[in-house]
Recover the amino acids of this structure.
């Protein structure tokens, strides 16, 4: 666009594309100088129609492979039992809709209790893990402090060598934590990897700011609370989300340590009731699995339990997307 | 994961050698700050809040990571919960001999390696290909939308993923339902040992391909568009540009993830497999971790299971260190510098 052609001078003043787009009475756009995407640089050759179609097809299929199962699960959870019987299983086209399944699982009983257990473990666990990790990361963020290297190695070694399932189980059981919710929180409360992520983030903060605060008489607690934390909200939030998603999704530790099924978290109920098709003892959901018609009769309820397990993930996902992909990991990869 | 990568940029702010970054600098012995001259007691006093901050995490790691490491002594004992660690009789290497001569353990090792190899071939390249494809999409909106969609299942639990697959591919699942509606005979993929490898690989792809895509796209975002432009001006068509510009940019990340996967060869989706072991059967679905779990926690053969688990832990450690060494030989950064 060197402005040699007379049309350019006749055209409206060159504005950024967005500004032009928002002008209410936009003049008819001048004939475009090159066809195709506005994002394509000049030097890039135009794609062949076949290639373009193929690319679109593959990407559409990939997106559908993720979205379609979710769609049919959610739709079935809102469908009536009669509807699932009519189509013989999962509902793919909206028919008769109802909130019945949710009313049943949320009106007390096994599923509600399990959901509360999961929420509680996730909340308490995330707070503990995040606080402990932030403190440890800050405590390790000043090379040259007393015992800095030995302590760092204490963290690093756990990333390369795990103790193993059996000794860990025996330890938890000899601490008397079997059937205690602490068994779901304490053994995995600190992830050395997350501590190191936070540590490298804290070390990236301009040290002169921290030094200035120290000269003014601020101790390390105050420096952490007043300067470092406010400057690293996004990183701390991402690590908290890592922990939170981990606690919410954990199922094997509960299978290992929680024998009393009245104390089961949601993931174990999901496994038992939906994956294995076992009807749960007690509570409002018993008898939903009709012996005469098979497991299918409880389908909307089963799908509602699945949706219940997905919802918290969906709630935090936009945040994860924004901060996680842009901030921590991109920084990590770019180095 | 990307330990080395994520700490490397700190090289300028951390003059002292750092175990995470390896050296941080080029000088073999960087000038240390005169910290060492200060008496220990003064330094302890100065850094006591730092030590206090690290304390809770160190206590948790010592109790729940290091004490169990020591707990592996039961692999050399005839452990029983009634006699405990301290009073169980010493058994020498007998448990390890049992492990290495046990056909079921060897089967589990075989299954583990087969699954790892299959997934390296059919899972590992998929995020790379999809990242290349997405990277060639010009519209940023389309690109980020697809990215967000594909990334989502990474945050689902394995219970959820396996359940979703059961609802789609299982005996009463959607596909069978459709097949039967059209008068065709159904097949239950969830309980078929012959297609099990394909099934778990599909599950892994569904859950984690998006995660890989994000990492590869992040690597690609570091490539300056000028490289592409220069290549195009020099007459390189799109395939040559991919070969000479895009792929070299991805190479360090590909090698890093490959190393991590190789080091983790003996670990294959424990939660994924333990959820499906009963449905498919131990012939194909028993891997080392599930074997250890069943022998120990279910059948209470504690010492034997601990020995099997310890063998796996030690071999894994050797594999990680070896894979990293291999990366260094090929001139790549690897997971960490200087073992």
């Amino acid at each position: 666009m060197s402005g040699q052609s007379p049309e350019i001078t006749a055209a409206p003043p060159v504005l950024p594309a967005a500004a032009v787009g928002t002008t209410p009475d936009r003049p008819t756009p001048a004939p475009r100088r090159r066809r195709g995407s506005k994002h394509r640089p000049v030097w890039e050759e135009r794609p062949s129609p076949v290639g373009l179609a193929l690319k679109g097809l593959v990407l559409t299929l990939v997106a559908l492979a993720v979205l379609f199962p979710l769609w049919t699960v959610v739709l079935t959870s809102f469908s009536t039992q009669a509807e699932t019987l009519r189509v013989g299983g999962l509902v793919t086209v909206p028919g008769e809709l109802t909130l019945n399944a949710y009313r049943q699982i949320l009106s007390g009983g096994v599923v509600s209790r399990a959901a509360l257990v999961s929420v509680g473990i996730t909340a308490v666990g995330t707070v503990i893990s995040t606080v402990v990790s932030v403190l440890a990361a800050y405590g390790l963020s000043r090379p040259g402090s007393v015992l800095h290297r030995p302590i760092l190695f204490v963290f690093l070694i756990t990333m390369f060598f795990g103790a193993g399932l059996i000794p860990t189980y025996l330890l938890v059981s000899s601490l008397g934590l079997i059937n205690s919710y602490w068994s779901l929180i304490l053994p995995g409360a600190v992830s050395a990897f997350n501590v190191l992520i936070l540590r490298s983030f804290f070390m990236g903060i301009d040290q002169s700011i921290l030094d200035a605060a120290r000269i003014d008489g601020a101790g390390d607690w105050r420096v952490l609370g007043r300067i470092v934390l406010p400057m690293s909200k996004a990183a701390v939030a991402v690590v908290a989300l890592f922990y939170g998603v981990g606690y919410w999704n954990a199922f094997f530790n509960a299978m290992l340590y929680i024998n009393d099924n009245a104390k089961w978290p949601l993931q174990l109920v999901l496994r038992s009731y939906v994956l294995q098709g076992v009807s749960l003892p007690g509570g409002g959901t018993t008898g939903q699995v009709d012996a005469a018609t098979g497991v299918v009769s409880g389908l909307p309820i089963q799908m509602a339990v699945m949706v219940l397990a997905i919802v918290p993930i969906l709630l935090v996902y936009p945040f994860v997307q924004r901060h996680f992909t842009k901030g921590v990991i991109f920084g990590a990869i770019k180095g | 994961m990307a330990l080395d990568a994520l700490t490397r940029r700190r090289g300028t702010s951390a003059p002292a050698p750092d175990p995470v970054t390896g050296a941080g600098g080029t000088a073999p012995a960087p000038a240390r700050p005169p910290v060492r001259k200060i008496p220990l007691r003064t330094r302890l006093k100065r850094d006591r809040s730092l030590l206090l901050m690290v304390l809770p995490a160190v206590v948790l790691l010592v109790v729940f990571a290091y004490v169990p490491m020591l707990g592996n002594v039961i692999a050399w004992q005839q452990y029983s919960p009634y006699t405990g660690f301290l009073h169980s009789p010493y058994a020498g290497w007998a448990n390890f001999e049992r492990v290495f001569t046990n056909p079921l353990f060897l089967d589990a090792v075989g299954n583990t390696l087969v699954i790892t190899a299959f997934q390296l071939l059919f899972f590992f390249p998929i995020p790379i290909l999809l990242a290349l494809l997405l990277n060639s999409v010009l519209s940023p909106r389309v690109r980020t939308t697809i990215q967000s969609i594909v990334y989502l299942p990474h945050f689902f639990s394995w219970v959820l993923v396996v359940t979703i697959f059961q609802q789609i591919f299982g005996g009463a699942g959607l596909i069978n339902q459709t097949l039967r509606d059209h008068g065709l005979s159904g097949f239950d993929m969830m309980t078929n040992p012959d297609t099990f490898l394909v099934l778990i690989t599909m599950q892994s792809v569904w859950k984690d391909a998006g995660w890989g895509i994000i990492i590869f796209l992040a690597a690609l975002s570091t490539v300056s568009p000028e490289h592409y432009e220069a290549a195009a001006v020099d007459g390189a068509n799109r395939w040559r540009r991919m070969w000479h510009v895009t792929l070299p940019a991805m190479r360090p990340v590909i090698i890093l993830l490959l190393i991590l996967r190789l080091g983790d060869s003996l670990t294959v989706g424990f939660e994924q497999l333990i959820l499906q072991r009963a449905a498919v059967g131990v012939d194909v679905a028993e891997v080392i971790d599930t074997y250890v779990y069943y022998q120990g926690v279910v059948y209470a053969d504690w010492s034997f299971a601990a020995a099997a688990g310890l063998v796996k832990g030690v071999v894994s450690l050797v594999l990680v260190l070896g894979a990293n060494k291999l990366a260094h030989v090929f001139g790549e950064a690897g997971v960490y510098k200087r073992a």
The two ends of chain B are 16 Å apart (CA to CA). Chain B has 17 helices and no strands. Chain B touches chain A through 120 residues (CB under 8 Å). The longest helix of chain B spans residues 302-329.
